[in-house]
Write a structure and sequence with these properties.
heterodimer, A: about 290 residues, alpha/beta, Rossmann fold, six-stranded mixed β-sheet, B: about 325 residues, mainly alpha, ABC transporter involved in vitamin B12 uptake, BtuC, two-stranded antiparallel sheet, two-stranded antiparallel ribbon, 14 helices
Chain lengths: ~290, ~325
């Protein structure tokens, strides 16, 4: 519990943090175990310190905004949590358990999903394969399954069902068509849909609405709320303060590789967040 | 319900556009086969009097190009995974010579085992150096090409070695399985296995994922390094098999074996629809590409063209094939 006190305003979103989303109260966790807890993460690239003692706590059913200027370390933090990068120091816990042997494979198996800024899609492969990338269903019980024969039909049927469910309209394309055929918005839809479907504990989204129009952005926000209602912790990286204020319960501000403050959005304004980001305002309780 | 839609276009227009894209892809996939058919028909007519389309000539085209075809089918994986292996030609020479030397004293199986082990070893060294040193496979295999070429020359002091082991020559050369010549059996077996692995298994998908989107492959937990190593092992082992087939068909080996194969193999794979930049690969396409180039060469010979003209013609075809392939380059 000492970790929680390191971040003054972090905590289970047990109080009705925002009147706008009553569902948050309904899904407030009874057990006080964060879905994701990153503690003291540091990462340097040569002489550049991308992360310095960064802390991040996300509770089940919480939508946490992660904001900061370009180069503040947001994407690096996400990559350290998802196993994409190996932090030099620090620990990551998923549902209270330390995440060892960090790799994307392990992190995914533990229920962490990420929507990367670059979407992490393979353009030349079909939509169904992209949805199942790295976790393709294979035929048969043990010795036979090592051959890795794909259940292609099952993959396609499930892909079509899943995309329908999360409301990604392929507009005439089939799940057997390659991703390169899709528009930017559709591709983003596939990437977000993949995370929504597989994310069990935590979903981290790195500017998921960057390439989207108004209508599509609203849909992504719906999906985020759906994850929250399912008890999944969501981390939303965004440069759009309005989006953060609208969608998130709490927000963590990063500056120069540090997580400088975590506050409930009900207690801040967009201008204050910008102040924290630029350093015009210093948080009271931290350093 | 479906909100991730743009605005403006109607449902049926979208469906039409998607169908058009699908048709375009289908048509593009047929290009190598259509080109193959076209060249075949042209030669069959023009070279009628030379018996181009006779059964024995067609059989010999397949047999003469069996090694190229097998290397091209293996190469589909290598290119598909975004790697390149410049050392296949000299791998062929080293494997053929070593196997021929072993066969002077040892039974056929020993020669085969040694030959394939060399291929495996070369592939592992290429792959592990590429991955561990973080150097492009282009450079590692360029060095390997030179090392192996030197070894091939040193092995027998440039002397050729005859293979008199009849069992070996039968299985890897002039023999047959029932009515089917053994070289056809080898090509057919490699075709089926490679196609099933590429299209039906998780490994095949991972090869194309690593080649088509390395970042995405890493992010989704695919074992990128293993896949890259395996891609270079496949090209080396298929080169080793090609070397065995050369030795069996020619009943001997020389350090020059395979020395001009690299460009032909790459061209065959690319003609068949495999991307030079990874992410797309076709096994049957590579086979058709190899046979197309073999047929072209045979036709030019029958038309009375000399070696210089053949080289020029083949070079032009390769450049055209690569240029067409380049148009598919992402971004």
């Amino acid at each position: 519990m000492s970790e929680a006190s390191a971040q003054p305003a972090a905590g289970p979103p047990s109080a009705p943090a925002r009147t706008a989303n009553p569902a948050a109260t309904a899904t407030a966790p009874s057990q006080a175990v964060p879905a994701l807890e990153a503690e003291g993460l540091s990462k340097s690239f040569g002489a550049v310190r991308a992360l310095e003692e960064a802390n991040l706590t996300v509770w089940p059913g919480q939508v946490l905004g992660l904001v900061g200027d370009n180069g503040a370390g947001k994407s690096t933090l996400v990559k350290c949590v998802s196993g994409r990068l190996h932090p030099d120091r620090g620990t990551v816990r998923v549902a209270g358990e330390v995440l060892r042997a960090r790799s994307p494979e392990v992190a995914r198996a533990r229920g962490i999903e990420v929507v990367y800024q670059n979407l992490a899609l393979v353009d030349s492969l079909d939509i169904a394969t992209n949805l199942f990338l790295g976790r393709e269903p294979v035929l048969g019980p043990r010795p036979f399954s090592w051959l890795g024969f794909l259940r292609t039909r099952q993959m396609r049927q499930e892909a079509a069902r899943v995309l329908r469910e999360v409301g990604v309209d392929l507009r005439g394309a089939s799940v057997a068509d390659p991703v390169e055929q899709l528009s930017g918005g559709q591709r983003q839809g596939i990437a977000v849909g993949r995370a929504v479907v597989w994310g069990q504990k935590v979903v981290l989204m790195d500017e998921p609405s960057a390439a989207l129009g108004v209508e599509q952005t609203r849909h992504v926000h719906d999906l985020i709320r759906r994850l929250r209602d399912r008890g999944v912790g969501v981390v939303l990286i965004s440069h759009n303060m309005q989006e953060v204020m609208q969608v998130c319960d709490h927000v963590t501000v990063m500056r120069a590789g540090r997580t400088i403050v975590t506050v409930p959005v009900s207690e801040v304004s967009g201008e204050m967040l910008v102040g924290y980001i630029t350093g015009a305002i210093e948080p009271r309780s931290d350093g | 319900m479906s909100v991730l839609t743009g605005t403006g276009t109607s449902q049926s227009a979208d469906a039409r556009a998607a169908r058009r894209a699908r048709l375009g892809r289908g048509a593009r996939a047929l290009i190598p086969y259509a080109g193959f058919a076209l060249i075949f028909v042209v030669f069959a007519i023009v070279l009628r009097s030379h018996g181009f389309a006779s059964g024995s000539n067609l059989e010999s085209i397949v047999e003469q190009n069996a090694s190229i075809a097998i290397m091209a089918m293996g190469y589909a994986f290598t290119l598909g995974a975004g790697e390149i292996d410049l050392s296949i030609g000299s791998t062929v020479a080293v494997v053929a010579l070593t196997t021929a030397l072993v066969l002077e004293q040892q039974p056929a199986w020993a020669g085969v085992l040694v030959g394939l082990a060399i291929g495996l070893g070369v592939g592992l060294v290429n792959g592990l150096l590429t991955v561990l040193l973080r150097v492009p496979s282009f450079l590692i295999t360029l060095g390997m090409m030179s090392v192996l070429a030197g070894i091939a020359e040193a092995l027998t002091n440039l002397q050729s070695v005859a293979v008199t082991n009849n069992a070996f020559n039968g299985v890897f050369g002039s023999g047959s399985l029932g009515p089917v010549p053994s070289l056809f059996v080898w090509v057919g077996a490699v075709l089926v296995v490679a196609q099933v692995v590429l299209r039906r298994t998780r490994y095949g998908r991972h090869v194309l994922a690593v080649g088509g989107g390395r970042e995405a492959a890493v992010s989704t937990g695919i074992r990128v390094r293993s896949v890259r190593v395996s891609a270079l092992v496949i090209s080396a082992v298929s080169a080793a098999l090609a070397g065995l087939l050369y030795a069996g068909r020619l009943q001997g080996a020389a350090y020059t074996l395979g020395s001009t194969d690299l460009l032909t193999v790459i061209a065959a794979a690319i003609i068949g629809g495999t991307s030079l930049f990874g992410g797309k690969a076709s096994v049957p396409g590579a086979l058709v590409g190899a046979l197309l180039l073999g047929m072209l060469q045979e036709g030019l010979i029958l038309m009375g063209l000399g070696v210089p003209d053949q080289l020029i013609a083949e070079g032009v075809v390769v450049v055209v094939a690569v240029a067409v392939g380049l148009r598919e380059r992402p971004e």
